[in-house]
Amino acid sequence: MRELTYVARRTVEWREAPDPKVRSAGEAIVAPVAATACDVDSSILAGHGFIDPPFALGHECVAEVTDVGEDVTGVVPGDLVVVPWAVNCGTCAHCRSGLTAHCTSVPHMAMYGAPIGGSWGGLFSDLVRVPYADAMLVPLPAGLDPVAMASASDNWSLSWRLVAPHLRARPGARVLVVARGSIGLYVCDIARAFGASDVLYVDPDAGHRRLAESYGARTAEAIEPVPHGFDVAVEATGRVEQLGLAVRSLAPEGVCESAGNHFRPGELPLLDMYLTGVTLRIARDNVRAHIPDALDLASSGKVAPERVVSHVFDWEQLLDALPEKHLKPVFVRGITPGRASS
């Protein structure tokens, strides 16, 4: 089989690898059918990552199950499934408490798409081994389009976690979104669905702002801090100064969620944060715990994640199209774009 491998800035290549096989009774083999680039993949391809190439890329996809071990009960060959980015067993103490990104049955930070915590391959590969199939794989609900849900492995489900629980706890909260990619746009959609009274989306990209407006958000190219302006802020830029803007704009006891993958150090306005009494969360997401809720929301008809998909390419276009700058490209094979899961 082939693994799409990141080899240099804006450069990927196919590399041959042995076909993965089921090694134990609880494993599965899957074939990605709709895979997309995470916002952090875009940073890696631009040369801003912190891991030297080469390595297999990709950690967001809907896949078809092709083989399962004899103890797997949750899926069968032919099923369409969401493959979470973090490798997790589902049974250790961390997994049972929802901390699936910190599974103690595998090396720390074991994941697809980067050689952290071992080498697990990437979801832009022709075939992928899933070591804990019943714990990891989430069947795609009937009626959902694999293309629209290609990001459920990470960005779509992460976006649910960034804003939905806060709006449940604070009905009608005011939400600030400072972003550069798909996460911020998904957040706008989800915030509107959960009844935010105001959503302000800040992004220098005019096309992104138009998408945010289609979700009912106000938009701006840039802003100065808005003291006590928002109950919840989401920062997804990877720029520390933009994180500072977000926390400076919070109301007393406000919450800031950072999903920015900050590869560079910087300073935060700690005194301002202290005086306002803000909560800041910067965390590697335990996405497996949120995928079912995020898929339920997608099934409800209250959101439109398909609008964020900027391009649909054939699988064989990965070499040329992935290194290009696109908001949310999805690469497909074996399915017709727009097909709903059945």
| Helix fraction by DSSP (H/I, runs of at least 4) | 10-25%
- Could you describe the largest sheet, including whether it forms a barrel? 7 strands, mixed
Taken from the alpha-carbon principal axes, the silhouette is globular
User: What CATH architecture of the largest domain do you see?
Assistant: Alpha-Beta Complex
CATH H level, superfamily name of the largest domain: Medium-chain alcohol dehydrogenases, catalytic domain
Order of helices and strands: EEEHEEEHEHEHEHEHEEHEHEHEHE
Number of structural domains: 2
GO molecular function: metal ion binding
Keywords: Metal-binding, Zinc
Protein name: Dehydrogenase
Pfam families: ADH_N, ADH_zinc_N
What does the model show?
Its cofactor is Zn(2+). Keywords: Metal-binding, Zinc. Residues 183-298 form the Alcohol dehydrogenase-like C-terminal domain. By secondary structure, this protein is of the alpha/beta class. It has 2 domains: 2-154 and 286-332, Quinone Oxidoreductase, Chain A, domain 1; 158-282, 3-Layer(aba) Sandwich (Rossmann fold). Helix content is 23%, strand content 24%. It is built from 10 helices and 16 strands. It has helices at residues 39-45, 93-96, 133-136, 155-169, 182-193, 206-214, 240-248, 270-276, 291-299, 318-321, and strands at residues 2-8, 11-16, 28-36, 55-56, 61-68, 80-82, 128-130, 138-139, 174-179, 198-202, 218-220, 230-236, 250-258, 279-282, 311-314, 329-332. Strands 3, 5, 6, 7, 8, 15 and 16 form a 7-stranded mixed sheet that branches. Strands 11-10-9-12-13-14 form a 6-stranded parallel sheet, sandwiched between helices. A 3-stranded antiparallel sheet has the order 2-1-4. Helix 8 (270-276) links the parallel strand 13 (250-258) and strand 14. The chain is globular. The two termini are 28 Å apart. The mean pLDDT is 95.
